[in-house]
Specification:
alpha+beta; globular
């Protein structure tokens, strides 16, 4: 859980500009490249946009989706002209095109039948957490986990943060969208 809070803090610094263009490069005293194309690694803009997309999918807030939209919009024309040079950013843009499917399994056993089935589902986010972890994520501001602290094992199948009724039978977890 502390890793998610630390990651969000680094991401916030990158989005706010308090740690420079790229938090990892800045930490090493290296200036970010003005070139926003992917090489062996994603460009700094695409990497930050990808992290923001993941934060939004986990329910960290609309601020992160808005940051992705801003970055994708700013680089869209160049990305479409040179798609091989902007693969990461185009993947991030695709993540905005369809509402995300999020599966949250609350269980005491990480290898339970419900958790195993959920891990095989077609979803942007599949998380397997304990009741305590779900509460901790919710308390840290990740809305995807709010109210998902049932005492019994449950799987929550959500589309853009709107969840169906929870299920406890692995056969009721849809593997497809």
């Amino acid at each position: 859980m502390t890793w998610a809070i630390a990651a969000r803090s680094i991401l916030d610094g990158a989005l706010d500009g308090t740690v420079g263009d790229d938090p990892l490069l800045s930490a090493q005293g290296i200036a970010a490249s003005p070139d926003q194309t992917d090489g062996d690694l994603p460009s700094d803009a695409a990497a930050v946009a990808g992290a923001a997309l993941t934060a939004w999918w986990l329910g960290a807030g609309e601020r992160y989706r808005e940051a992705v939209v801003t970055t994708v919009s700013a680089l869209a024309a160049r990305s479409l002209e040179q798609p091989f040079a902007h693969g990461t950013l185009l993947r991030v843009a695709a993540g905005l095109a369809v509402p995300p499917r999020q599966l949250v399994v609350v269980t005491g056993a990480r290898d339970s039948a419900l958790a195993v089935v959920a891990r095989g589902a077609d979803a942007e986010v599949v998380t397997v957490v304990t009741t305590e972890q779900a509460r901790a994520f919710a308390d840290a501001g990740f809305e995807l986990f709010e109210g998902k602290d049932a005492s019994a094992e449950r799987a929550y199948d959500c589309r853009a943060f709107v969840c169906r009724l929870p299920v406890s039978d692995p056969a009721e977890v849809s593997l497809t969208r």
